[in-house]
Specification:
heterodimer; A: 257 residues; alpha/beta; Rossmann fold; six-stranded mixed sheet; 10 helices; 10 strands; 40% helix; 24% strand; globular; B: 250 residues; mainly alpha; 9 helices; elongated
């Protein structure tokens, strides 16, 4: 579980996060949604330790980040898996070297055991047998799955994904969503996905937080979306004609998804 | 005033990066793998160009010296002596380093810069890898260990180029040229050259790394960082060339 209390961050006098508090539960796909510029990325990067907040507290299963020493922080970092928007695969490494990197860096496991684990996670993400290829030789969707494989290779407790569907076709995007959902259940991770992709939200959003102008504007599940009269949520989610029609149909039927 | 403050800010950030860089590698095996990779990328791949340039520089020095030595009272062996001195003292260590600043500096700044803008450095940081140590230290080791050898070979090539030019133009005989090469050999000049080479090698590895590491933005900014890296590395090489010369030779 990740708990955030009263998180604040400003850049050059402009406050980007204005006191956000949230609880992200273990074994759930938690989603942070919001328009561009709403503070999603700064919020996510603050939780990842890439940005130091001006005020507030982030705790990982009770371990308060700001109160930890370097060694304790390093331990938490090894429990984190992350998938960035652009995949962030190391260009000079092949797929096996990319996926095995955390294992080679932080463990003393023999090469055979590392290879076995790499093959296992590549199998899990549906990409067996591409070990020797380089990132530039595979498609964007495959790169995303390799990035997910690298993120889970160390059996993470916390899985972060920043815009995992960005730039992917709808079918591949759904595969990535399903994969994140399956891995969350399989590894029992606290998964946090940053997105503004409506399909993702409806597909795997077990716990959703809407950010608007640096504040938490709404919180709930994908089922709650159709019954909420929160204006910010309705403005964001049902801005398209298609989703307004879906909402009307769901409300007529009197149920959720 | 703004520019002066900006310069001090840059200098401070540079030394902070160095402090982050100089720590024990988290995994020695990965460090040595990266070191070997860097030896190939920023060492071996530059050999051809450096030898080519030094061969012709040696040739030009020989021809120019020969054409300016018209006084019959002056010994023709001075041509070989002038070629040797200029190649060992200046052309091989300094000019080669300025050329390396262009070739290697732009390579280092653009690769690290691209890693920054594509979030590869963020991934390392999130994992708990000391990204500066992981990316920059192998480059420093590679340049410091390889460039002295490269410069020594380039000295031989420059002197050989001088002899070849003398033969082609018939301006100096082999015997005179060899006599000049052996004349008044001062071992300290070689030490001075090696000191310069090591300092320049450090600058070539660290200044472009600094500009790449702190890139913000996109492809355009990476390009600009690469250009700045080459300019600042060249400026620092020229400055340190003067400082070292003043300290060691005057």
């Amino acid at each position: 579980m990740i708990e955030v209390k009263n998180l604040r961050k400003a850049f050059g006098g402009q406050e980007v996060l204005k006191g956000i508090s949230a609880v992200f539960e273990k074994g759930k796909t938690n989603m942070i949604i919001g328009q561009s510029g709403s503070g999603k990325t700064v919020f996510l990067k603050s939780m990842l330790g890439l940005i130091t907040p001006d005020q507030g507290e982030i705790s990982f299963d009770g371990r308060i980040w700001s109160a930890l020493d370097d060694k304790q922080r390093a331990q938490i970092r090894r429990e984190i898996g992350v998938v960035f928007q652009g995949n962030a695969l190391f260009d000079s490494y092949n797929i096996e070297e990319n996926v095995s990197f955390p294992l080679r860096m932080f463990t003393d496991k023999p090469a055979s055991e590392i290879r076995e684990r790499v093959n296992e996670v590549l199998e899990q993400v549906g990409l067996p047998g591409i070990n020797r290829k380089f990132p530039s030789e595979i498609s964007g969707g495959q790169q995303k799955r390799v990035a997910i494989a690298r993120a889970i290779v160390m059996y993470p407790k916390y899985l972060f994904a920043d815009e995992p569907n960005s730039g992917l076709d709808p079918k591949t995007a759904i595969r990535i969503d399903d994969l994140l959902y399956e891995l969350t259940k399989h590894y029992d991770t606290t998964t946090i996905v940053n997105t503004h992709d409506m399909n993702s939200i409806m597909e795997i959003g077990e716990h959703i937080i809407l950010l608007k102008n640096g504040v938490k504007a709404w919180e709930g599940s994908k089922e709650d979306i159709f019954h909420s009269d929160n204006p910010d949520l309705n403005d964001f989610i049902f801005s398209s004609e298609l989703f307004r029609k879906v909402k009307d149909m769901v409300q007529k039927l009197g149920g959720g998804l | 005033m703004k520019h002066i403050l900006g310069f001090f800010e840059l200098t401070g950030k540079y030394f902070l990066l160095l402090r982050k860089t100089f720590s024990r590698p988290q995994n020695r095996r990965i460090f040595w793998q990266n070191y070997v990779r860097e030896l190939d990328d920023i060492g071996l791949k530059t050999v051809g160009m450096i030898l080519f340039i030094n061969f012709f520089i040696g040739g030009v020095v020989t021809i120019q010296t020969a054409l300016n030595l018209e006084n019959p009272l002056l010994d023709r062996s001075l041509i070989g002596f002038a070629a040797k001195q200029s190649v060992i003292l200046e052309f091989s260590p300094t000019l080669s380093s300025v050329i390396l600043a262009g070739i290697v500096g732009s390579y280092i700044a653009s690769t690290i810069g691209t890693m920054r803008i594509t979030e590869q450095i963020d991934v390392l940081d999130v994992m708990g890898v000391n990204s500066a140590n992981h990316l920059v230290l192998p480059k420093i080791f590679a340049t410091l260990s390889f460039y002295p050898f490269l410069i020594i070979i380039s000295m031989f090539m420059g002197i050989f180029g001088g002899w070849a030019a003398g033969q082609v133009t018939d301006l100096v005989s082999t015997a005179d040229y060899l006599e000049g090469i052996r004349m008044d050999f001062e071992p300290f000049h070689f030490v001075y050259s090696m000191v310069k080479t090591l300092v320049f090698a450090f600058l070539i590895a660290t200044i472009p790394s600094f500009f790449g590491y702190y890139v913000k933005g996109g492809a355009l900014e990476v390009g600009r960082a690469s250009t700045k890296a080459v300019i600042w590395t060249s400026i620092m090489i020229v400055l340190w060339n003067y400082i070292i010369t003043q300290l060691l030779l005057s």
